[in-house]
Amino acid sequence: MSSKSDKKKSLVPRLRFPEFREAGAWEVKRLGEVANISMGASPKSASYNDQRIGLPLIQGNADIKDRKSSPRLFASQITRECWVGDILVGVRAPVGMVAKSEHHACIGRGISALCVKGEDRQEFLYQWLLWYEPHWVSISQGGTFDSVNKNEITNLVALFPNPSEQQKVAHCLSSLDEVIGLQAKKVQALKQHKKGLMQQLFPAEGETTPRLRFPDFREAGAWEVQTIDQLASKIAQGGTPKTSIPKYWNGDIPWI
What we know:
Layout: H1 4-9, E1 27-30, H2 31-34, E2 35-39, E3 48-49, E4 55-58, E5 64-65, E6 68-69, E7 73-75, E8 80-82, E9 87-90, E10 98-100, E11 105-107, E12 111-116, H3 122-132, H4 150-154, E13 157-160, H5 163-201, H6 228-237, H7 241-244
Parallel strand pairs: 4-11
Antiparallel strand pairs: 1-13, 2-12, 3-7, 4-7, 5-6, 8-11, 9-10, 9-12
Helix pairs in contact: 3-5
């Protein structure tokens, strides 16, 4: 049986900011103690609309993009609500998806909304839920769709330091989120740049010369039109020992 000192050590993170190294163990709390939890309830489908009547509708993971609410429809029948800044947690497959609400919205049965109460920090809870996200599968229920209910969310146990340390941890991790977000935008911009280059470096449909060409090939003439089976046969005839075997390129099965 482990001693009390061993148990206390387990409530302290391995990495801690210097000013909090003597602050003692983190406190065990249930999410129901820390946050107000609202479970979504789907409005009638007849109330769904794209005329912006009622509130934006967040039904589930399909209405989340880049960990932010991104509603596709509105609902004129309001069942349960979330507010700007609430933490959104998916309660249906995939269970445990975490995001932030950027809308005052109606939430469907695939979503729960959490708002910290008291002195605890909303951003700390958000970061903890991100860390916990892969663990949800262990408590999700079986069935046609995996799901968790309010009781399971309410009784989920987490460790909380004092509010000052919560703020420090949350600031550190959210700063990294900002860097990740900026890098993701750069990657997306590069993908768009590549897509634009491909449209110019390959001839358009019905043409044999690309719009953009490297200087040393501008006088090289038009590109040659070939079918895939012709190209594959040429590669096989002069290719590697494996692809040189006729059965790989000259059999009864056509190249696709």
